[in-house]
Structures are given as structure tokens and as C-alpha cells.
Amino acid sequence: MVAATGYAPISLTLDNVPASGAVATNALLTAMLRANNQVSDLIFSPGRPPQVEINGQLVPVEARGLRPLLADDTRRIAADLIGSNKPAITMLREQGSCDISYGLPGLARFRVNVFIQRGSCAVVMRVIPTSIPDFSSLGVPQTLGEIADLRDGIVLVTGGRGSGKSSTLAAILDRINQTRTCHIITIEDPIEFLHNHKQATVHQREVHSDAPSYTQALRSALRQAPNVILVGEIRDRETIEMAFEAAETGHLVLSTLNTVNAVQTIERIVNAFSGVEQKGIRTRLARTLRRVISQRLIPRIDGSGRVAVVELLKVNARACEYLEQGARLDETIPHLIKQGRSDGMQDFDSAIAELVLSGVAAEDTALIYSSDPTELRRLLQQ
Question: What sign for the dihedral angle of Cα 132, 134, 136, 139?
């Protein structure tokens, strides 16, 4: 039978499944990963069989003797993943969820979220590639390599869940690592891609195990002589304030934000502050913001996976003027991006149109992911 997602359930090869149906955690993870090379997430929920996400769609997995998960199963899986990580145990107990990293030696690493729902544990595991991707393999503009030449300011990679933000950020950081003799500090929750020393010296700190919070780690980083600071995610006003301070004191700050485009990104930052503060925040943004890279993943027409499509804003003199004057960003920024193609800027709809015209994406799918379907149809007709 074909699953509601459009994918047939995946059959696993599992040896020696006990009569209870409770499979050892590492054996189950290994089998789920090896079942399909497009797996991006693993999900364990009481009352459901284990599931994998493939190209944005959830697919159940099956094996002889493997039954739907019980609350005891998901609790055991969570305990195996957390191990003796006391900060994670405390956070799960007090806040109802925790983030950790987990690795299968020689096979994969994961970003893991364990959370409580209806009194039982559920687990979501994001697969982190063992090798750091480059711009070509991600399909993002090669002009992102220019970020390695920036000496200060803020660069934000944005997008929804599962849009590939972490991979793009890792590729940018790796380009810096390859081309600059500098000191890089990353602050992540948890650490995802592992960066070895290349031209740069790289120190990676994990929130809760190496530092109590993003804010504390950022404050400490300013005393650790970095040139580049990567903050895994900007989550609150306090982190924004620290990122501003770092950028204003000569550091290049890289981070992510869960926003869908450049306009929403800027508005999210400005609206984190009270009305009387917002004029000053716009001025600080105009002085420190260098790039906003927003991305989405679109299914390929041949069903082989998804391809990244990117909106790229370079903050030039005109963008600074719009920010400082408090202009209507939803009117000015999209126009600025479209007019800035010669300067390396890129809007979503033009990038999506190129994918359709080159036979990578289907037109009906592209219209779903476009910012303005009417504009996309016009571009395709041209």
C-alpha cells in the first residue's frame, strides 16, 4: 500500500528483533538511514511506527517484528540519545524539551530535539551530513563566496524549517576557513557541522555543555579575540543586542533567523524592540547589516530530491537609506533586490523562473513556492 505522502512505506532489514519489538536504538537508526539516501529527518512518536522524512514528506518504516512505538519505546530512545548529558536532562524535566547532538561513528551525526507531549516523549532527529557542503552542491549563488571578504557586520541566513539554512551557513563558514587566516568562534545549540582548522583557527562551543546560554557565550566571545563569530540562531532581543555589539566592534557575525524573506527578517529584528527604540535599531541595522540570504527548497521535476532557491539582499547605500528613513520595507526592499541583479542580488521569483526554464522544476510546483505567482507567470512568458 502507498502511504498518504505518496511514498510507499520503507522496509528495513533488522536482525534479531526481540519478541517485544523493542529494537536497540543505534541498530534502528542505522537501518533507517541506510534504507534511503534522501532521509533528512527521523521521527519517533508513541502510537506510530518510526518515520523518516524524504524530500519533505513523512514516510513510515516497516520491518518484520517491528511494532508501532509505545511510550516506553520513545522514552528509552530518548534516554539512549541523551545519555549522561545532565544539562539536557534538567532542561527536559524543567522546560519540556531539550536539544542535543548525537553521532553514529562513521555513519552520521544528528541534531536532536526531545520533547514531552501528552505525558510521553517524542523525538525528532535532523540528519547532519558528515562532510561540509560547498556552494555548488547546494545550488546556491557562487556570489555568496564574497562574504568571506567581509571584515565586519552581520550576515543572516533565513528560511523556514528544513530550508537548508544550516548547510548554507556551514558552506559560508568553510569558505572563510579555507581562505582567511583568522580566528573563528561558533556558538551553537547543538553543534552541527564539525569544522577542522584550515587557514583559520576554529573553536566551536555548544550551548548548555560549553556555555550556559547564547548571550553568555557571545559576551565571552568578545573577550576571546575572534574575527568571525557564528551564532547558530538569533532567538531573542538579548541575542540581537549582542550581535549588534559584536558587529559594531569590528567582528563579522553570521547567524540564522526563521523568517521567509529579507523584509520579514528586518521587520522581525526591528519589532523585537519597543516603538521608541526602533528608530535607533534601524540606524544600527543600516550600519551593520551586510547580507540577508533567504532560501526555500523546491522539489525537482525528476523526483530526485529538492533544490535550493535563494533571495539575496546586499545592503547597499540605497538599502541603508530605506532603513534609516523608516520606509515601507514591503515596497522598497523587493524593488531594490530586483533592480540589484547587476550587483549580485537575486529575488525568489526570478530564481524560480530559471529553474523552470532549465527543466529543473515543474511550473505548477514553482507557482506554489513563488512569492508572487502572477509575477512568476509573467517571467515565464517572457
Answer: positive
Q: Specify the pLDDT at position 66.
A: 80
The pair phi, psi for residue 54, each rounded to 5°, is -125, 115
- 3-state SS of 254-289 is EEEECCCCHHHHHHHHHCCCCCCCHHHHHHHHHHHE
Q: In this predicted model, what pLDDT tens digit does every residue of 174-186 receive, in sequence order?
A: 999 999 999 999 9
The predicted-structure confidence for 93-151, as pLDDT tens digits, reads as follows: 999 999 999 989 888 899 999 999 999 999 999 998 778 999 999 989 999 999 999 99
Q: How far apart are CA 180 and CA 350, in angstroms?
A: 33
Distance between CA atoms of residues 221 and 201, nearest Å: 14
User: What domains sit in the chain, N to C, each tagged with a CATH number?
Assistant: 10-128 (3.30.450.90), 135-346 (3.40.50.300)
Distance, in Å, from the CA atom of 348 to the CA atom of 371, rounded to the nearest integer, reads 7
pLDDT tens digit sequence for 198-216: 999 999 999 888 998 888 9
Contact call for residues 168 and 157 (beta carbons, < 8 A): yes
CA distance 43 to 59: 10
Residue 356 grid cell: 523552470
DSSP 346: B
Can you name the residues that pair with 309 across neighbouring β-strands? 296
Q: Are strands 108-117 and 97-104 parallel, antiparallel or unpaired?
A: antiparallel
Strand-pairing partners, residue 183, are: 201
Q: How far apart are CA 312 and CA 158, in angstroms?
A: 10
Query: 188 phi and psi, to 5 degrees?
Result: -135, 155
Closest CA to 55 of 101, 102, 5: 5
Q: How many other CB atoms sit within 10 Å of the CB of residue 126?
A: 18
CA-based radius of gyration for the chain: 22
Annotate 194-234 with DSSP letters as a single string.
Answer: ----SSSEEEEEEBTTTBS-HHHHHHHHTTS--SEEEES--
Give percent helix, percent strand, percent coil of the chain, each to the nearest 5.
Answer: 40, 25, 35
* DSSP letter for each residue of 101-142: EEEETTTEEEEEEEEEETTEEEEEEEEE-SS---HHHHT--G
